[in-house]
Structure formats: structure tokens, C-alpha cells
Write a structure and sequence with these properties.
heterodimer, A: mainly alpha, Formate dehydrogenase/DMSO reductase fold, 10 helices, 69% helix, B: alpha+beta, Alpha-Beta Plaits, four-stranded mixed β-sheet, two-stranded antiparallel ribbon, 6 helices, globular
Chain lengths: 313, 181
């Protein structure tokens, strides 16, 4: 058989989720209203629009007729997750772009995008208030983009491996997890200004929670499919002995979930107990962040490809 | 109203592939793809009483087509005559519909950059002729007609013969009726 959707779609779904997750974290950290989390909120805000914009660009090149991509925006098809998702992507990219500009400030150290740009505002406009308006608008859009990347697959009854609401949930939480990992990675790489102990604690705590949720979504995903129609039960063979078994269980579950979970818990316990100093080696952060980032990609690869092999009846 | 459909008398099919060739000739189908096909069932029985059915397939012209539902630009729609068609000038080639079809009846036409599938030979039918696969079939396996016309051959067949449709559990209400022999 011929795969209709290949690597470009895998990467696009991954980047879409990553950017959406970054924005959601930026919003959460901002609204926590604590000075020492502001650098994290800023970095997340500066990063958020780029993966989504890049992913959407990739998707245009994946079309059979790329020059016609504008047709997506000449109509709204409410029954098509792709149509609703395309509009959502545009709205999110614009909102997160404006949000990024409002977070940016003159800082020659800031290597990310236009992080070194200071956007002048008319007098009388309060920067923080305006910015938080965009934060509040963009956060639900970010959650929407994260969910949409899974709904796109889940809304197709013809592909039983996809056709459960668990996929959207799994993709959303995986997106949040990759975003937390990206922040951990970036803040550790740039530890001159960030990656304080409270930050690492915050990111670890968030990621541990999300990974646990992912594990508790995988279990009902299997139960639901195994106890559903014959087609859905059979579709599980693809990851239970079939060609995607190793990628799913080793690449995603073991390396993308369990390994970082263990590393983060081991690293977090002494942090909570207050036994570690800020000079603590960044190695642990890399060992948890990089597998999470890779695992998220593997998850999408498995779902995009395995789903197309699964069939109805 | 008109509601075009097809009945397939599986017992008549000898898998000569005439319908598949005629379809290619009529619809300029690119190499490597086909708008229709002939599958086969498992062999049953024990020699000398052995049997197998050849089962022609194509777009089922569903009443509730999932392909149309997922199309982000409205390029696929079910027309007033009950036929599901692709507007090639509108399709952007995202292939979502190809994945959404429970019958795998669609394919990506890489020459044109759009989705492709059977449309009951729109041009021929509008000119008062039968679809190419129907006309070419030497064993009278296929019957094409209007379900809303109670006197049509297909309406009579569907009313009087035992028929089944494929994958009804997908909920798409297909309009290809397989006559049980």
C-alpha cells in the first residue's frame, strides 16, 4: 500500500503540538505571577510561534497542489478537522506572534528569533496588560491546536488505530510534555540567566505530572480498542507484535516516557529535600529532556504510519 | 430526483478485468492506480466441490460520504444525482479523503496533484450512456441505474433479490449493492 501521509505530516504534527505547548506553559508561568518564573514565561513566549509556523509551512509543501493552499482560507468546513484546524493554526500563529513581540525586549543576549527587538507601544498602552490579553486569548487556542493535531487523526472511522478520542488526549499531553522538555533544555543551555532550582523543580513537576497522565491515557487506549469493534481490536496488533511494536514500546513508552520519568523523579527528590545546590550538573536535565523530545516524535511517527495501515472491516 | 447506484451480481464475475481496463481507457487513470478493482474471497470447499467469488469494487457512492465530510475545502460533494464527485479545480491534494474512505476507493492522482476516484463516468451518464465498466462487462455482472425510479432494473433487483452492502458499520450508507447468489 501507499502511505498518503509521511514524514512531513509527522514533523508538522510534532511541531504544531510543541509550539502550542510552549504557549500554554508561557501562559501558565506568566499567570503564576511570580518574578522568578518570568524568564521561563518569556523564553516559552519567544519560542512558541516558530515551530507552529514552520510546521504549517511544511504542510503546504506536502499538498498535491501547493499553489492552491489558499483555498483552505476561502472557506470554513465545520465537519472537517483539517479546515477548522487550519483556521485555528492561523489564529494561533498570529496571536502567539503578537504575544512574542510583546514579550521581546532589547537584549543583545537574546538569540531567539526577534528576542532582541523592543516593540514600541503608543503612550497610554500598558505593555503587561496588552500582553496578558494576548496570553488569555492564545492559551485556549494553544490547547485547541494541541487537541486538533490528534482530532485530525481521530476523526476518521476508516482508520481504526486512530478512531478514538484517546488519540487527541494523548497528542495534547505529549505536546505539553515536549514543550516542558524543550523549556528544560533551553533553560539549561542558557543557565547564565535561568534554570534556577525553582525553575527546574517547576518543569520537572509539570513534566512528571504530564508523563503520568500520558501513561494513564495509554492504558485506556489499549483497553478501549481491545474491547471495541473487531477492526479496532485488530488494529492494536500493529503495536503488539506488528511492525510498529519496537518503535512504540521502546522508542515512545520506554525511552520517551519511563526513562525521563525516572530521571526526573530521581533528580526532583533531592531538590525537594533541599540537598542540591544550583551548581548541580545539567546532565540530568539533558537525559530527561532529550528523550522526551525524541519520544514525542516517535509517538507521532507511530500513529501517522500505523494508522494508515489499519483498516476497517 | 435521481439517485444513481449500482448492483453487482458477484456470481457472474469471471474476473476478466474488462471493467478495470475500460475504466482506465475512459478516465485516463495514471499508472499504478485504479478507480476500480476485482478482489476475491477465500477458496472454499474441498475438491472437486471448490468455489471462489470474484468481488468487483469501486467507490461506493455513499449517501453519507466520509470523504466529503473531512474535505477541508469542499472539493468533494455528493451531487443531486447521488454521485460523489471531486471538483479537480478546487482539490488541494491533502489526501485526507483518501485516508477517510473505509473502502480505500480513493487514491492520490500524482499527475494532477488531486484526489481521484470513480464518479460513475459522469460524462458518459450525462450523455445518456452507461458507465464504461457496465457497458464493457461481458457477463452482465453490473447493473447501473436510478434507485429513485421504481421501474428501473436496479430498483427491481434491489427490491426482489437478496443483496448486501459492504462495511455498513462504517455508517456511510453505500450505494453499491452486491447480489447474493
Amino acid at each position: 500500500m501507499e502511505y498518503q501521509w509521511e514524514w512531513l505530516v509527522v514533523v508538522y504534527l510534532y511541531l504544531g503540538g510543541l509550539g502550542a505547548g510552549l504557549f500554554v506553559f508561557s501562559a501558565i508561568f506568566d499567570f503564576m505571577n511570580q518574578k522568578h518564573f518570568e524568564p521561563l514565561a518569556r523564553i516559552a513566549a519567544l519560542l512558541a510561534p516558530w515551530p507552529v509556523a514552520l510546521g504549517a509551512g511544511l504542510l503546504i509543501f506536502d499538498l498535491g497542489s501547493p499553489m492552491r493552499f489558499w483555498r483552505l482560507f476561502s472557506t470554513v468546513q465545520w465537519t472537517s478537522p483539517m479546515s477548522v484546524g487550519s483556521w485555528l493554526l492561523v489564529a494561533f500563529t498570529m496571536t502567539s506572534g503578537a504575544h512574542m513581540l510583546l514579550w521581546a525586549r532589547s537584549n543583545p543576549e537574546m538569540p531567539i528569533g526577534i528576542g532582541g527587538l523592543h516593540l514600541p507601544l503608543p503612550s497610554g498602552v500598558r505593555r503587561v496588560e496588552l500582553r496578558r490579553t494576548f496570553t488569555a486569548l492564545g492559551a485556549p487556542m494553544g490547547l485547541g491546536v494541541g487537541i486538533y493535531t490528534g482530532v485530525l487523526l481521530g476523526a476518521v472511522p476508516a482508520r481504526p488505530f486512530w478512531n478514538t478520542p484517546m488519540v487527541a488526549m494523548l497528542f495534547l499531553f505529549s505536546a505539553l510534555s515536549t514543550a516542558a522538555a524543550a523549556l528544560l533544555l533551553v533553560s539549561t543551555l542558557r543557565k547564565t540567566t535561568v534554570s534556577s532550582i525553582p525553575e527546574r523543580r517547576l518543569l520537572y513537576t509539570a513534566d512528571i505530572g504530564i508523563i503520568l497522565i500520558e501513561i494513564f491515557l495509554i492504558v485506556p487506549y489499549f483497553l478501549h480498542n481491545a474491547l471495541s469493534t473487531a477492526s479496532q481490536a485488530r488494529s492494536l496488533d500493529l503495536v503488539l507484535g506488528g511492525p510498529f511494536t519496537l518503535a512504540f514500546w521502546i522508542g515512545f513508552v520506554a525511552l520517551g516516557l519511563l526513562l525521563p520519568l525516572i530521571v526526573e523523579v530521581l533528580d526532583l527528590v533531592p531538590l525537594i529535600a533541599g540537598r542540591k545546590k544550583a551548581s548541580h550538573s545539567p546532565l540530568w536535565a539533558y537525559v530527561s529532556a532529550i528523550p522526551v523530545l525524541a519520544g514525542g516524535l516517535v509517538l507521532r511517527w507511530v500513529f501517522v504510519f500505523a494508522g494508515q495501515v489499519s483498516h476497517f472491516g | 430526483m435521481t439517485r444513481y447506484a449500482m448492483a453487482i451480481r458477484t456470481a457472474n464475475c469471471v474476473r476478466c478485468m474488462g471493467c478495470v481496463v475500460a475504466c482506465r481507457a475512459e478516465n485516463d487513470v495514471p499508472e499504478g492506480s485504479s478507480r476500480n478493482w476485482i478482489g476475491q474471497t477465500e477458496l472454499r470447499g474441498r475438491f472437486p466441490h471448490v468455489g471462489v467469488d470474484f468481488v468487483p469494487g469501486q467507490c461506493m457512492q455513499c449517501e453519507e460520504p466520509h470523504c466529503a465530510r473531512v474535505c477541508p475545502v469542499g472539493a468533494t460533494s455528493k451531487d443531486e444525482d447521488g454521485v460523489v464527485r471531486i471538483d479537480r479545480d478546487v482539490c488541494i491534494g491533502c489526501r485526507y479523503c483518501v485516508l477517510a474512505c473505509p473502502y480505500d476507493a480513493r487514491f492520490a492522482n500524482h499527475e494532477l496533484g488531486v484526489a481521484d476516484k470513480c464518479d460513475f463516468c459522469t460524462d458518459r451518464v450525462r450523455a445518456g450512456r452507461e458507465p464504461a465498466c457496465v457497458q464493457t462487462c461481458p457477463s452482465r455482472t453490473r447493473v447501473f441505474g436510478d434507485l429513485d425510479d421504481p421501474d428501473s432494473e436496479i430498483s427491481t433487483l434491489v427490491a426482489s433479490e437478496r443483496t448486501h452492502r459492504k462495511k455498513l458499520e462504517a455508517g456511510t450508507e453505500p450505494k453499491i449493492f452486491y447480489i447474493d447468489s
